[in-house]
Amino acid sequence: MRSAVLLFAAACGSGAVSQAAFPDAFAEAVCEVQAKCRQQAHYEEQQCEEDAKSLIAPDLDKAVKAGKAAFVPSEAQACLDGLRARGCDLYAPDVAACKRAVKGTLPPGAACSWLYECAAGTCAPDVAGSCPASCKAVSGEGGPCDPGCDDRLGMRCIDNVCSRLHTVDQKCGGDSDCAAGLYCDGFGKCAERAFLQAVCETDHMCADGLWCDRSAEGGLCRAQIATGEPCTASSAEAILNACVTGDVCKGFTFAKTGATAGTCTPTGEVGAGCVASAQVTGCGEGLVCIGGKCAEKPAGGPCTGGADCKDGVAYCDGAQCHLLKEAGETCGSDIECASRRCDPATGKCVEVDALCHEP
Q1: In a domain, 88, yes or no
Q2: What is the C-alpha separation between 188 and 203, in angstroms, rounded?
Q3: H or E stretch including 223?
Q4: Are 275 and 231 in contact (CB under 8 A)?
Q5: Rg for the chain (alpha carbons), in Å?
Q6: Same domain (yes/no): 254, 285
Q7: What's the whole-model pTM score?
Q8: Are 358 and 64 in contact (CB under 8 A)?
Q9: Statement to judge: residues 10 and 100 lie in one domain
Q10: 111 domain residue, yes or no
Q11: pLDDT for 246-305, tens place per residue?
Q12: Within a domain: residue 124?
């Protein structure tokens, strides 16, 4: 399973989502935004949705039936709305409502088998695979960070105290300590994001709708470039967010001798036109440009490295792409396993989930 952190890390609606519909709706809300922001191919979005859904289903129904949790429709809908409204702010904090969409009933010390069965905090084993786990005591606002902060109430450990996200001029250790729309500046304080033509070091320092055109000499916040317009940047790294969300700068190449401009174009799916010779081919992440068209990477055939084989489907042994192996199959290294875990003691792929699940 991919990291649960990344899935909580990602349009508004009306009314409230039902318990039955929530797992699918949650997965779509997480992964649609994530795929657009990461310029991913559609099949990678589908893989993401499978992983995201497994955080909720079928545990939700089992936990509710067992009396260990209750579904909260209003918080679930706030979770979905919040995820879709986040945009591509990669350093934005978790949407806390997602952690309150299910209200746990188990007290500290009780055995738990799913992430949201505890009345406070979350249920997670100290060591992956050691399930069931137990609900732990957590601190609220102003409390000590040890044994932990109640993240379901939006608490996080900032400056050794459980706190809500900090506002302008309050202390921070990183961007994720600051409220939405702020970043952690060089003085360790939350600050407003910069305006057009302001000096910047990262995209996150610039306000929404802007990107940081950075080079070794520094950077400036510039307006994102519209679809169909020419695009260029002062470095290969800076071009990633130069175009409006959902677009890539197709045809862009950067070299010390100068940059070749591209055109802001919607991220290419299978069959879309692309520029194979450019650093930004125009294809979505997970695809390759062959013969001027975006295509899926192979699950078999020659390869020189992992990037040559289909992501999440195959691995490269240094010469050939092979399908990833399932739990119980013989392996020689982690890269051969779909779970990314090859047990050195048995030489077989093993599935080790970082979370517990209802039996």
Answers
A1: yes
A2: 18
A3: strand 218-223
A4: no
A5: 22
A6: yes
A7: 0.79
A8: no
A9: yes
A10: no
A11: 899 999 999 988 899 999 999 999 999 999 999 999 999 999 999 999 999 999 999 999
A12: no
State how many domains the chain has.
4
pLDDT tens digits along 77-93? 999 998 888 777 655 55
The label of the residue with tokens 């797992």 reads: 23
Q: Are residues 281 and 308 in the same domain?
A: no
Q: What are phi and psi of 182, to 5 degrees?
A: -120, 165
Q: Which two tokens stand for residue 148?
A: 């932990």
174-178's contacts with Cβ under 8 Å and 24+ in sequence apart are 175/91, 175/204, 176/91, 176/93
Q: Is 166 helix (H, G, I), strand (E, B) or coil?
A: strand
Within-domain flag for 320: yes
Cα–Cα distance for residue pair 69/99, rounded to 1 Å: 12
> What six digits make up the tokens of 211?
């990107």
**Same domain assignment for residues 158 and 206:** no
The residue assigned the tokens 């050691």 is 130
Query: How far is the C-alpha of 82 from the C-alpha of 13, rounded, in Å?
Result: 10
Structure tokens at 146: 């040890």
How far does CA 133 lie from the centroid of its chain? 25
Run of H or E including 163 = strand 161-163
